[in-house]
Amino acid sequence: MIQQIYPSTPHPFRYELNKDMHFAAAHYVPSEQAGDCAKLHGHTYFANVTIVGNELDESGFLVNFSLIKKLVHDRFDHSLLNGHAEFADEHNPERYPTTENVARTLCEMIQDHLNGMANKPRCVQVFLRETPTSYVVYRPAAGGVYGG
Ligand SMILES: Nc1nc2c(c(=O)[nH]1)N=C([C@H](O)[C@H](O)COP(=O)(O)OP(=O)(O)OP(=O)(O)O)CN2
Ligand SMILES: [Zn+2]
């Protein structure tokens, strides 16, 4: 069982849901400055995704926990991150599969899906751990999340 304390983000919504998950993936950071990270290697990533909203769906869910896992796990588990379109541009540092960019991409992917739901849940935080000693927290700009 995964048990961990995460940083929290303040928000005005009635419900907050968190989903923990793992995925195994390989990557390299295509930058001469990246040192050993420029070499192909792998991690078991750990992600915690925070979803908020005011309304539940017809199942009484803010969003089904399993959907959040499916969006991330089905796409990235046992894959080469650099092989995904989101991370394939080796000339744009915003597209390198760093922890920062992967966390932001997960949030954006999930939000794209949530935008199609009638109860309009929002992804307000992705905590992404790459190694036992390194993690990133991504939060979309407040205007983007709360501004409708
Ligand atoms: N800001 C970032 N820095 C680094 C990233 C990153 O994504 N964003 N990535 C790496 C490497 O991919 C590496 O796999 C992880 O680095 P690091 O935490 O240094 O790994 P260690 O397990 O060796 O850490 P120790 O605490 O020294 O054991 C590097 N930097
Ligand atoms: Zn790495």
TrEMBL record:
Pfam families: PTPS. Its cofactor is Zn(2+). It comes from the Bacteria. It catalyses: 7,8-dihydroneopterin 3'-triphosphate + H2O = 6-carboxy-5,6,7,8-tetrahydropterin + triphosphate + acetaldehyde + 2 H(+). Pathway: Purine metabolism; 7-cyano-7-deazaguanine biosynthesis. SUPFAM superfamilies: Tetrahydrobiopterin biosynthesis enzymes-like. Keywords: Lyase, Metal-binding, Zinc. Its EC number is 4.1.2.50. GO terms for molecular function: 6-carboxytetrahydropterin synthase activity; metal ion binding. The keyword rRNA processing does not apply. Belongs to the PTPS family. QueD subfamily. This is 6-carboxy-5,6,7,8-tetrahydropterin synthase. It comes from Cohnella luojiensis.
